[in-house]
Amino acid sequence: MKLTDIGMLIVSSPRSNAYLQALIRKKLYPSHIIFMEKEHNRLSPGQISPKIISDLKKESDISSFFDVDVSITDLINEHNISYEICPSQDINGSEILNIVQNRPEKYFIYSGIGGVRRRKSKGNDR
Questions:
Q1: N or C: which end of the chain has fewer CB within 10 A?
Q2: Which domain does 25 fall in, by range?
Q3: What does the pLDDT look like over 42-82, one tens digit per residue?
Q4: Would you say the pTM of this structure is higher than 0.85?
């Protein structure tokens, strides 16, 4: 079922991947995804390195939760989910705010950088 009033704001992280896979497993597809790209090559809070993921796969079976080997973009394309790439991960930045304000979805699931929250604004806010 396409969730016409719900979009997602995501970064490339295991958490975002797990959320998207959980929705897809339940046959729930966000109307649109805003994929927030890294502005640098460092790991952001809430992200884990490929080596840690590899070690985790060796130590335990996480496949019942989600498949870490499937990329978010592969999931998006495989399930024909509308998306766009934003060149910023700053949830309070003008690039993301402009995109969100121009989208028809009423709600957005946020899976961004760990520990970062959306600030209240004085204007039209979603």
A1: N
A2: 2-111
A3: 555 555 556 655 666 566 665 666 777 788 999 999 999 99
A4: no
